[in-house]
Every structure is written in structure tokens, then in C-alpha cells.
């Protein structure tokens, strides 16, 4: 049947991917790893564009229009927003829609949710284990964790521990609330306002869309790197341009999200964190390359995606750029796959 693989976040008890490595290796889901590991260079908490109901002027929102709420100081209104649970984002949005003055405050808290979820896997141990993995890489797990590994085998220990937590609150919000304004929220909120006329409803939905759009910035003029915090090694994002291009494909610089042939830093990370005791990868690659994949040199290490000028001091010695080596490994995989 072949060996099945999952990428596990040991700290958060979360996992991504599920299938034979050859079937999932080039999937777009690995782009999600970039936002899970990358810290934005800037969070755009700028003043939100005021929603204007039909017939209103372009004047700044007036607190006096809040009725009884106008008697509350801004500190209390802020505390109300802060009291909303993070998984009650729908309620936060509805309260913001009550008036543009409240939207100015609510917008800040909505953006804070996006900021917290972006980079939420930074500095966590990551390992992509195959279900034939019984042992574990040295120096990765605690003694208590190793007891469980010895009892169940690495994969089944991880799979069993994370089974009911595959889609935790943290990962759920990343999937739906980070990276794009989720249509589910817009539909949910707008359906709650179905008493509005069609024209007003369209305007409201556009406003909800604007309110829910993440304003996280990843400066594409910076030099972005995938950093292994455990080994003090990094891979430059622009090194992806070393990979063979498809006919007509243009080289692009898009900060940490740079892709070549659909391959990004998430795929590069996956190629170096796999671990198993069996070389079955369901990929048309030579045995030697297969063995290098299943004994990934970065398996179980801690990572972040950041800019060169924000790299923390190396935990061991000096930082080492291994971009050339990593891209050569990726090139071999692509060529053998005839991708």
C-alpha cells in the first residue's frame, strides 16, 4: 500500500498533509507553512475606511451617534472588544458594524487576530513522519516523549497524540481567517442582515469584506530566509530562482512567498524534515536520494521564516547559508519527477 506521511508540529499537537509522499509533495498546501512560520515586517493597523450608509456624509464617525454607548469612554469600548473570545470573531464583526465609530476600534482587534495567527508555528519542532517510522531522530524528543515513541513507534505516537486536534483553534483560524478575507464570514454576517435592501446589502457585504481583509505586510524588498534555529542554518527565498523554470515562466520576487513552478519555501522545508525507517517515498528517485529524504537533516528542528536583517543570534556558532545545497536537492527531485 505504500507509506503514508504527516507533517507534525510537536509543540502545538497539530498536523498538515496526509498521504503518500509522492502524492502530496508538490501540493499547494505546503504554501501554508510559510504563513505559519513567517512574521510580517509590518502590520497595517491603519485607520479603517469608514463605511458610509446611504445618505451620510464623508465626515469622520461621530461618537455622539452611539446613543447610550456614547457616554462610555473609549477605554470601556476598547475593553468590550477585548472581552470577545478570539473564536467569536463573528460577534466582534457584528458589534463593529453597529456604527462606523465602533468599526474603527473593532478593526484593530480583528487585525490583531491575524497578527497572532501569522507565524504561530515559529520556533516549534516540526517533523514529517512516515507510518513506517518506529525510531526517532536523536536529540529531538524529551525523555518522556521517547518513552511513548518506544512503546508505539514514532508515527503512531504522533498520530495518536494529534488525532483529535488536527484542526485546532490555531490552525482553524489560519485556514479561514488569515491570508484572505473568508467568504464564509461575509456570507454569515450578510445573511444576518437580510432585512436590508439588495443595494444596501451589497454595500454592507463589501464593507465586511474590507473589514476582514488582513493588512499584514511582508516586505518583498527584503532578503527572506527559511531559518533552522536548531542548527543555525538558513536557505534564502530567492535561491528558488536556481530551480529549472518552465517555458515562459518569469522570475518573480515576492518576499517569503516566492514560488518557482509552484514550489516555495514550504516545499523546501518538507524536503528536509522527513523521517522514517523505511525508504518508501512513492517517488521516482534513486535509492540514495530516497534515503536522504527519509532521514531529513532538519527533522524535528525548530524554524522560522524571517528577513536576514532580523535573524536572531545563532544558537550554535555562526549562521550558515546552505541555499545551494538545498536547491540542488530540490532540483534532483524535480528532474527525477519530470515535474
Count of distinct strands: 10
Oligomeric state of the chains in view:
single chain
Return residue spans where pLDDT drops below 50 for at least 5 consecutive residues. Answer: 50-58, 164-181
Mass-distribution shape? elongated
Question: What fraction strand?
Answer: 5-15%
Question: Largest sheet, order of strands side by side?
Answer: 2-1-4-8
Number of helices: 13
What is the succession of H and E elements?
EEHHEHHHEHHHHHEEEHEHEEH
Which range best describes the helical content: under 10%, 10-25%, 25-40%, 40-55%, 55-70% or over 70%?
Answer: 25-40%
C-alpha-based Rg, rounded: 23 Å
Q: Distance between the terminal alpha carbons, to the nearest Å?
A: 23 Å
Mean pLDDT value: 81
Write the layout of secondary structure elements.
Blueprint: E1 4-9, E2 14-20, H1 21-24, H2 32-37, E3 42-43, H3 74-83, H4 89-97, H5 100-117, E4 126-130, H6 143-152, H7 154-162, H8 169-177, H9 183-191, H10 198-212, E5 216-217, E6 224-228, E7 233-236, H11 265-270, E8 274-275, H12 287-294, E9 303-307, E10 320-321, H13 323-337
Parallel strand pairs: 4-8, 7-10
Antiparallel strand pairs: 1-2, 1-4, 3-5, 6-7, 6-9
Helix pairs in contact: 3-5, 4-5, 6-7, 9-10
What report would you give on this structure?
Helix 4 runs antiparallel to helix 5 (100-117) and helix 6 crosses helix 7 (154-162). This protein has 339 residues and is of the alpha+beta class. The strands form three sheets. Strands 2-1-4-8 form a four-stranded mixed sheet. A four-stranded mixed sheet has the order 9-6-7-10. A two-stranded antiparallel ribbon has the order 3-5. The chain is elongated and about 70 Å long. The relative contact order is 0.18. The protein is built from 13 helices and ten strands. It has helices spanning 21-24, 32-37, 74-83, 89-97, 100-117, 143-152, 154-162, 169-177, 183-191, 198-212, 265-270, 287-294, 323-337, and strands at 4-9, 14-20, 42-43, 126-130, 216-217, 224-228, 233-236, 274-275, 303-307, 320-321. It starts with a strand and ends with a helix. Residues 50-58 and 164-181 have low confidence and may be disordered.
Amino acid at each position: 500500500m505504500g507509506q503514508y506521511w504527516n507533517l507534525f508540529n510537536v509543540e502545538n499537537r497539530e498536523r498538515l498533509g496526509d498521504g503518500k509522499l509522492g502524492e502530496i509533495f508538490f501540493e499547494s498546501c505546503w504554501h501554508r507553512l510559510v504563513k505559519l512560520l513567517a512574521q510580517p515586517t509590518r502590520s497595517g493597523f491603519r485607520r479603517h475606511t469608514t463605511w458610509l450608509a446611504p445618505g451620510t456624509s464623508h465626515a469622520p464617525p461621530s461618537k455622539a451617534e452611539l446613543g447610550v454607548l456614547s457616554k462610555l469612554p473609549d477605554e470601556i469600548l476598547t475593553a468590550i472588544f477585548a472581552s470577545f473570545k478570539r473564536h467569536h470573531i463573528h460577534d466582534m464583526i457584528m458589534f463593529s458594524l453597529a456604527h462606523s465609530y465602533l468599526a474603527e476600534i473593532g478593526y484593530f482587534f480583528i487585525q490583531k487576530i491575524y497578527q497572532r495567527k501569522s507565524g504561530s508555528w515559529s520556533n516549534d519542532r516540526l517533523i514529517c513522519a512516515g507510518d513506517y517510522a518506529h525510531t526517532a531522530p536523536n536529540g529531538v524528543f524529551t525523555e518522556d516523549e521517547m518513552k511513548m515513541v518506544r512503546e508505539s513507534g514514532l508515527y503512531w505516537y504522533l498520530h495518536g497524540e494529534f488525532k483529535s486536534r488536527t484542526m485546532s483553534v490555531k490552525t482553524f483560524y489560519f485556514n479561514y481567517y488569515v491570508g484572505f478575507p473568508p467568504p464564509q464570514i461575509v456570507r454569515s454576517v450578510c445573511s444576518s442582515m437580510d432585512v436590508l435592501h439588495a443595494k444596501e446589502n451589497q454595500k454592507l457585504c463589501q464593507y465586511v469584506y474590507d473589514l476582514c481583509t488582513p493588512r499584514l505586510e511582508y516586505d518583498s524588498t527584503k532578503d527572506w530566509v527559511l531559518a533552522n534555529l536548531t542548527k543555525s542554518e538558513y536557505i534564502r527565498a530567492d535561491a528558488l530562482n536556481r530551480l529549472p523554470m518552465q517555458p515562459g515562466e518569469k522570475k518573480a520576487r515576492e518576499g517569503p512567498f516566492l514560488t518557482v513552478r509552484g514550489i516555495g519555501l514550504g516545499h523546501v522545508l518538507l524536503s528536509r524534515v522527513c523521517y522514517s525507517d523505511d525508504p518508501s517515498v512513492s517517488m521516482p528517485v534513486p535509492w540514495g536520494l530516497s534515503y536522504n529524504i527519509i532521514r531529513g537533516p532538519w527533522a524535528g528542528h525548530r524554524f522560522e521564516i524571517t528577513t536576514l536583517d532580523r535573524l536572531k543570534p545563532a544558537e550554535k556558532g555562526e549562521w550558515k547559508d546552505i541555499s545551494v545545497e538545498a536547491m540542488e536537492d530540490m532540483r534532483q527531485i524535480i528532474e527525477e519527477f519530470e515535474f
